[in-house]
Amino acid sequence: MFMKSKEFTKILKPISRNRNQFKQLVPLRHTLVANMSDSKPSLPEAYVVPKVWKGPETYSGINRPFAGARNDKKLQRGEHPLQLYSLGTPNGQKVTIMLEEIGVEYDAWPINIMQEEQFSEAFVKINPNSKIPALLDYSDNNESPTRVFETGSILMYLAEKYGQLIPTDARARTECYNWLFFNIGSAPYLGGGFGHFYHYAPIKIEYAIDRFSMEAKRIVDVLDKHLAGNRFLAGEEYSIADIANYTWVRALDVAYHGKEFLSLETYTNVNRWMEEIASRPAVVRGLKVNGWLDTDLRERHSKEDFKKIGL
What we know:
Layout: H1 5-12, H2 19-35, E1 82-86, H3 90-102, E2 107-110, H4 121-126, E3 134-137, E4 146-149, H5 151-162, H6 170-200, H7 206-227, H8 240-254, H9 268-278, H10 281-286
Parallel strand pairs: 1-2
Antiparallel strand pairs: 1-3, 3-4
Helix pairs in contact: 3-5, 3-8, 6-7, 6-8, 7-9
């Protein structure tokens, strides 16, 4: 519900005694009222926002306004306790990099999202949100595995389970979590925001591109300023926070081809950090798992599989 002019003035009344302070807020009031106006132009021009949203029933042939299973395709299971169902996206790469860094064996099965495999009954049982990656851990129970979904949860689960890539010092661990969840909160702006409107959207919308380009640059600048005084995000120790943020900053260039557009070369501290992470052998391997290219590993079941692609 939008505030009426009288309601807004009522809020400002307690501070109106300070005339200078009130004068400074008057332009803000005009801006807010203008932004809440129903008289703004539409794109396309004939579009009128309905009181209740009712369509379309599908978007891009995949997305629909409801959750749940759509097919009964089965998920495969390999010989290792850890079974990963994923794809070589920035979110999927977080987990495969993590697993390669830990050095544990696992089976990684590709989920073809264009064929709606993430909406299978078996996958939805692991992740009700139907998003990759999703993990099953049979270590403690061969019949009833532990399910883990959402990348932040998976990274924390693996870090705590294997005691790796997470600081033991309480202060440093908290800093690690700070930057891990910084990524969880900011990634949608980089992917669904900038990546979509700059690279994937069927039409170029100046407002949307400007809006999310500004946010993408701000997010990278937050990292750049922090990394000016820190080797890694949680300090001197490489951690799950670095893995989580690395794949999404990388995507701005590799996936969305926005390096020149966003002037990413100007963020010298981020580039130094990116180069150091990219040189890690486990990162090189992790980026190849469940990938899209002929030079990637579509499935991964053993460390020996990397020999097939020269690693």
